[in-house]
Each structure stands twice: as structure tokens, then as C-alpha cells.
Amino acid sequence: MCLVIKYLETLIVPALRRFQIPGEFLGNESVDALQSFISKSGCKLQELLITDERLLPKSEYHEALAEIPNLYFDNNHVLLPIYS
Predict the structure, then answer these.
(1) Quick one: 75 exposed, middle or buried, by C-beta within 10 A (0-12, 13-18, 19+)?
(2) Fewer CB within a 10 Å sphere, N or C end of the chain?
(3) Which residues in 24-59 are b (16+ Cβ under 10 Å) and which e?
(4) Exposed, middle or buried, 16 (CB in 10 Å: 0-12/13-18/19+)?
(5) Distance from C-alpha of 80 to C-alpha of 4, rounded to nearest angstrom
(6) Residue 34: closest CA among 71, 65, 60
(7) Mean pLDDT, residues 7-36 taken together
(8) Between vectors from CA 49 to CA 44 and to CA 50, what angle results, nearest 5°?
């Protein structure tokens, strides 16, 4: 298991709405790791950006993470911080 995935398992972030992570940080279990992280946190992600290389096709992410309205997979898209 990838070190970053182990780190994600320690976080509970119910207020998280936007998340950006390099695909290579997720390793082979990327979809399961993201589903577990989101479910355990109880967050309502509105945007997820997976940059760089992915080990799985986009369709697998879209299918497994259908509850996230904005799912991005490119290096040109940047999630800007939201200040309130």
C-alpha cells in the first residue's frame, strides 16, 4: 500500500469540499482508497482533481465516484482556494 494512502486513512475531514491529489500518490488501489477516505470523512466533495499518471481508466473513477459532481483528470486544471 502506498504511503500517501496510509496517511489518508488517518484523516477525517467532514468539511472537505475540494481535493487535489497526484494520481501516482494513490497507487494500485486508488478508487478503493478514495472511496474509503470520502466515506470515513463523511465529506461531500464537490470537486476532485487527480493529476499526473493514473493507473486506472477515467471511467472506473467516474463509475465509483459518481457522487462527486466535478471530477477532473488533467494537469492544466487548478483548484483555486475558496475563501469565505
Answers:
(1) exposed
(2) C
(3) ebbeeebbebbeebbeebebebebbbbbeebeeeee
(4) middle
(5) 22
(6) 65
(7) 86
(8) 120
R_g (Cα) of the chain, nearest Å? 12
For residue 22 the three cell numbers come to 497526484
**Residue located via cell numbers 464537490:** 46
End-to-end, the C-alpha distance of the chain in Å comes to 36
Q: Position of cell 486513512?
A: 9
The enclosing H or E element of 18 equals strand 18-22
If you ran DSSP here, which 8-state letter would residue 77 be given? -
Grid coordinates standing for 46? Answer: 464537490
